[in-house]
DNA sequence: ATTCTTAAGTTCCCTCAGGGAACTCGGCTA
DNA sequence: TAGCCGAGTTCCCTGAGGGAACTTAAGAAT
């Protein structure tokens, strides 16, 4: 898996994917955020190889997503907890879960519900505009180069087609978006 | 990578991750949704091995996330477009991007901006409750078993700790959530 | 009419990451 | 003092991914 190259790309999705784009990391974060925080519990719950689990956990600690903490002194035992950076991955998990629910839930319905304690209802998470609160979709958003974007050959930022709309009209190819 | 086992697990995150938990798939979807839809363009833009790109694309088509379509007749040329199922992965990408922006953007700022055409402003996507519109966080939500959840030994659904809160009080271990 | 080029993949070889299971090591506990 | 967690390491083996060359089909160039 090409790790380092991806992290260098000037795209936040690529940077996030470099860490999170791995079959296990999302599930580890799901577990840790829902209270499965010990090595053995994670290994059993996920069915992951202990070797790979150890590697993932130390990478996540290195990245500041998890912290390894002692939770009891005698005998000394450590577990893993999410940092704020780790907790902020929750929206990613919610989005993945929502998508999985919509497209893979059987006739019985989704395997889990998310209850919003604020309003007390079982909720479905939507990706909303921070300003007006409307749902964001492929159709009602456009991607523009940001301040931190590098320009130059081969360094796409995000959405050259849509960025191009700002200055010159596109070619004849159908616009997906 | 253990593919099939994960898809069987009664957890929508696991199901979604089985397809999406791969360093390349997220980036392919980003590209396709932003207008990079042809094989060679994808290969060059991503720097992905052509072999792996072919494998990913055919998997995505198989799953109904993309469709392979002829976009010109002479000479016959095909490209890939997102289906509704594919477009609905957009919130996942937004969440990944937002997280990457927050934690990996340099001093110059994020590499890209998302403009919401509805309100005309550059936006930051938030994961909100569909009922009340409030942001969903680890702290203000709880996970409960859903109708489609399997019960039995070894089949965690999502959040046994939080689910357990409904009936019996927890052990002495600190609750991460 | 032959050669060039482009698009869209395949094929081949090779390395390295992941799976599985056994081993380690410190520190209780019976 | 033998056993038993919890938390990893180590070992071997297979298979997925990288890289680069090859293929096929259909214009376009000369």
TrEMBL record, chains A, B:
Residues 140-177 are annotated as: Disordered. InterPro entries: HTH_HxlR. PROSITE patterns: HTH_HXLR. Residues 11-108 form the HTH hxlR-type domain. It comes from the Bacteria. Pfam families: HxlR (PF01638). Keywords: DNA-binding, Transcription, Transcription regulation. This is Helix-turn-helix transcriptional regulator. It comes from Streptomyces niphimycinicus.
